[in-house]
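Section 3.1: Structural characterization of target chains.
Under the original work plan, the team committed to producing a structural model for every single-chain target entering the pipeline before any wet-lab resources were allocated. The record below documents one such target. The sequence was received from the expression subgroup and is listed exactly as submitted; it comprises 382 residues.
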Amino acid sequence: MSDRSRFTARLLAPIERFLRVEASSGLVLLVAALVALGWANSPWAPAHARLADQLRWFLDDGLMTVFFLVAGLEIRRELGEGELSDRRRAMLPLCAALGGMLAPALLYLGLARGGDVRAGWGIPTATDIAFAVGALALLGRRVPPALRVFLLALAILDDVGAVVVIAVGYSRGLAPLGLAIAALGVALVLLLRRLGVRRALGYLPAGALIWWGLWRAGVHPTLAGVLLGMLAPLPGLATTLHPWVAYGILPLFALVNCGIDLGAFSLGELAARRVFVGVLVGLAAGKPLGIVGASALAVRLRLGALPRDVSWRGVAVAGCVAGIGFTMGILVAELSFEGGPRLAAAKAAVLASSLVGGVGGIVLGRLLLRPRAETAAATDVS
């Protein structure tokens, strides 16, 4: 193996590990969501309601910080040595991510107009990496490696956008003292980095200070994980934490938050109908339209170029599976509506659109993408 091949293999190894975990954890996440849905509609539904009440704050505001920490670490790695490290290569997934967030938000606002229903505009803007990568994995050899990397970069940038959405759109009554405490925590992280501290435990007090400050400020405290992951030099921590997040925290999140009582779920209220339709159309239609449209515009304006071996058909398939907005969609729904039929409608729409995006992406991929072995054979014959 040449030196260049070794360098490329070493560069791609973290991406391949990340993709393998995401692809397999998507199935675990799906099982957890189905268990929650079945449990909430069984004779043991009160037990699920009690479990959800006891765990929701600890999970949503506490353990999900670790999920955001892994996201921050992955963003840092991508910016340093991955697909986002080169400006021209980063521009296409960046434009695609922006289009994939803007189009769903505008569609939602156009369909779910009126009153506090508009608060749910951020629900259809996010992509679930685990489910999206898992759906692509089911297409096997039809998906070139460059398309998986494109989707990963797109989803990571989508996570950055989701962080901005939560911080800007769902922070209530910012308290200056809390922001000052969080800023002190960030300053401590930067000081520790300057002193050469590289052990994760060394940054734990600073991370806790950021979390507490954001909580006091009225900002969703899990964003402390993103800040810590992007600022602190923690090599290898993402590899250690990722399986725990993928196979533990996220399935538990689904088990707690996907228990929708279908008997009580009703679209009889006009506001609930608007929320359901807005989220469903925003994710199922807005995501692929925004991603493909913004990508086409970026290529036409020569801001970016399609990755090697990736066709517009592949971009369309990636756009379709990006409509799976499971984890972040449900989290933003919890921030948007405080219980009642609107929250139930939002969660139901996230589940329905995730099903549409997953099944639709797989069907579209089988129709539009040819297995790479067949392509290679055809080339040899010609």
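The chain has one domain: 13-170+220-373.
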